[in-house]
Amino acid sequence: MKPGKKGLARIFDATAYSMKGIAAGWKHEAAFRQELILSLVLLPFSFLLAANPLQWLLLVFPLLVLLAVEMLNSAIENVVDRFGDEYHELSGRAKDMGSAAVFFCLVLTGTSWLAIAWHNFS
Fold first, then answer.
1. What is the residue range of 102's domain?
2. Mean pLDDT score of the chain, rounded to an integer?
């Protein structure tokens, strides 16, 4: 058995795989594109809206979590679709649960942004 890479070589490879995953998400997943664009649009506003570094983190962190969960949801969908396109209750359940996870992240993001805006402008 060949030993795996270690140290910086492993970090460089892992980074390359991550970039490949982001590129695949951009190319093949409309929801990921929409959420990435939303995040990039909101990022500059986070600097204007946040009154302190903690508020800034509370604005930006949910955006990053949303992108991560969308990637996981897309991964689940791809794995399920890999096994066939015929309907199976467990496949549908897995896809619905992944979608629900993205929904919760959207609620978290919206709530965080509204709460900080409410706090700073009321």
1. 30-121
2. 96
Nearest 10 degrees: CA dihedral of 28, 104, 94, 84? -20
59: number of CA atoms within 13 Å, CB side? Answer: 27
Number of domains forming the structure of the chain? 1
Distance CA 115, CA 117 (A): 5
Scanning the structure block, which residue is given the tokens 């467990």? 90
Work out the number of other CB atoms within 10 angstroms of the CB of residue 8: 8
Q: What is the pLDDT of residue 118?
A: 98
Amino acid at 81: D
Q: What is the pTM of this model?
A: 0.91
Domain membership flag for residue 73: yes
- Residue 86 designated active-site: no
pLDDT digits (tens, 9 = 90+) for 80-104: 999 888 899 999 999 999 999 999 9
| 4 domain-assigned | no
Cα distances (Å, whole numbers) of residue 91 to 11, 61, 70, 100, 103: 34, 30, 17, 14, 18
Catalytic residue chosen out of the listed positions 29, 70, 77, 89: 70
